[in-house]
Amino acid sequence: MSVSYVERDQADATTLAFYDQAEERFQALLNIFKVFGHQPEYGKVFTDMIMAILKDGVIDWKTKELLILKATQRNDCQYCVVQHERVSNMLGIEDDKIAALDGDTYKTSPLFTEGEKALLDLTVQIGIDANHVSEELWERLHAHWSEPQIVDAVFVITIYIAVSKFGDALGVELEPMFDGVKPILHIAH
User: What pLDDT does residue 1 have?
Assistant: First the structure.
């Protein structure tokens, strides 16, 4: 870890408020939230944003989890991948579908719809170069998704690229409840 976690007994009232919200939702106070104890204003914004993302919206939560897993695995964020593999399982996404996100396996897997494949290709492209999404990919996206859904997907993808970079830069570690858990997806650490 590169920065300390602000524990409950060290937290001010603003920090405790977003800790309570996060703990209620995730049934634990995760370390990613504890680093925001150093910047409570950001912590509140972060918690509200994550709560807005992690639910059904114009794109269902399961699809969002596939995008989160692909984006964070491409960034080698073990913390994010382990956390979101757990969430994905809780939502009913099978381990074989999660495993098929590794590399390019999803492109030919019957476990994914053509719409999911287009969003996953977009996830990869954003991670490589967001300025050069091909016309062919835009056509595939528009064939399967509305513009509000595409905006939702891009927001989820880019936020979780940022979350993975933020957590890794600060050395956020998995909580003790994840001791011994090996991610399904390959992470180069």
Answer: 55
